[in-house]
Amino acid sequence: MAKKQKNILFIVIDCLGADFIYEEGKTYIPTIKKLKDSGYSFLNTIASTTTTTPSFAGLLTGLYPFQNGVRSHSGYSLKKEIKTFPEILKEKGYNTYAEVTGPLTKEIGLSKGFDEYNFRSEKAIIHKKFGNDLLKKFNDHYKSPWFVFLHIWSLHEPRVVIKECKSKKYGDTLYGKALASIDCYLEKLIKKVDENTLIIITGDHGEQIGYSTFDRFWKKSRSMIFTIMKKCGITKVHFAKGIRKFALGHGYNIYDMLVRVPLIFYNKDIVPNGKSSKQIRHIDIFPTILDLVDIKYSKEVEGESVLPLIKGKKKESKDAFIEAVGIIIPNKDEWLAGLRVDNKYKYIYSPFRQDFEEELYDLENDPAEKHNIAQTNKDLIAVFRKKIEKMKTEKLTGEKLTEEDQKKIKERLKALGYMD
């Protein structure tokens, strides 16, 4: 008898950083906790970028942004010659479905390989009609073996908190209560899939949040002061670090609060219970899923399967390239790039600003990245910079969008509040 193919439910929660999943007491999320405790978790998964669209492009291609061509929300689309994850699954008999929102419009090219690419308004949230309709799709709409790629938006601003999650039980932050609200929905969703389903949960990037009214006011005030100082020429350009350290949201820096995301695999048949603190990369998820469902794939991707770690074998950590380039077409003045090295070091520089003060952090002794040790470690910086330059990361290599497509995307980004 032929082996039954696993259904695959891949859930990406927008703005989901690692801390609220792996640190106790921040909120109450029993469904995610159960999947985490019963499945396999990676505690140090590093996103390639801190903006939604290029992050999703990395997940679907197993390639860094400079390799697949999608560096920001707009400007360039996915390289035509690149084969996506759902295209491979289709070739192996899967029916492929995407349920996405936010800036993930079809013009970017991320719909390649999906039988259905259902793009919805950001107002169509899981807690209302869309969520109920989605649950019904698991009854008979999604044809087995299926791959469902679900993008959840309600942790993104403006965050959505259901009535049941407004009490102190769910923490002190709006972010925590919104995540708890998502967890309540996931409880209903998980019940709709059978035990043959491989479930993956991650975030596209993290989020800088205010932990209280005063904390939000303090961060906004400091960020505003640094912004004004920079515009008026009162401070040096590299002092804009003050903006990045305190600005709320995402996309403007590559500190761990924004690049470190959770990653959970769950299926009782093929995923053992466990966890790993090894550094892995977003781009490693693509080949890992293929390995888990026993699909051989010879096409080159940058990511590498971490199934050996899941099986308890030793595997060397790979350096993680990371970048933040802006919303539309990468703004070279504000572009940041860097390398996260084996949970030990974080190197940050600006590829196009000679007056930017490089940053280096000792993650083992300074996980909050408060103390820049670049000035006393020039030898390490030289090594890390050489590694990045070898990758040839600075060229924009995607397919340039037509004026018509660019206009559509700009209108979408305005509706989301990314542009005035």
Structural description of this entry:
By secondary structure, the protein is α/β, with parallel strands linked by helices. The protein has a domain at 7-209 and 254-319: Alkaline Phosphatase, subunit A (3-Layer(aba) Sandwich). It is 32% helix and 18% strand. It has 14 helices and 14 strands. The chain has helices spanning 19-22, 30-38, 52-61, 65-68, 85-91, 129-140, 174-191, 213-231, 241-246, 256-259, 285-292, 307-310, 378-391, 403-416; strands at 7-13, 40-46, 76-77, 95-100, 116-119, 146-152, 197-203, 260-266, 274-281, 320-324, 336-341, 345-349, 359-362, 399-400. The strands form three sheets. An eight-stranded mixed β-sheet has the order 5-4-6-1-7-8-2-9. The longest helix is centred in the middle third of the chain and has 19 residues, at 213-231. It is globular and about 60 Å long. The protein starts with 6 loop residues before the first strand and ends with a helix. 47% of the residues are buried. The model has no long low-confidence stretch (mean pLDDT 90).
SS elements, strand count: 14
Distance between the termini: 59 Å
The residue ranges in which pLDDT falls below 50 over 5 or more consecutive positions are none
Examine the coordinates and then state which fold CATH places here, giving the name of the CATH topology of the domain at 7-209 and 254-319.
Answer: Alkaline Phosphatase, subunit A
What structural class do helix, strand and pairing data support? alpha/beta
Strand order of the largest sheet: 5-4-6-1-7-8-2-9
Helical coverage, percent range: 25-40%
Tell me the strand percentage band.
15-25%
Query: Which overall shape is indicated by the principal axes computed on the Cα atoms?
Result: globular
Q: What's the mean pLDDT score?
A: 90
Order of helices and strands: EHHEHHEHEEHEHEHHHEEHHEEEEHEH
- Give the name of the CATH architecture of the domain at 7-209 and 254-319: 3-Layer(aba) Sandwich
Quaternary form: single chain
Which CATH class of the domain at 7-209 and 254-319?
Alpha Beta
Profile the largest sheet.
8 strands, mixed
Number of helices: 14
Q: What is the CA-based Rg, rounded? A: 21 Å
In CATH, the homologous superfamily of the domain at 7-209 and 254-319 goes by the name Alkaline Phosphatase, subunit A
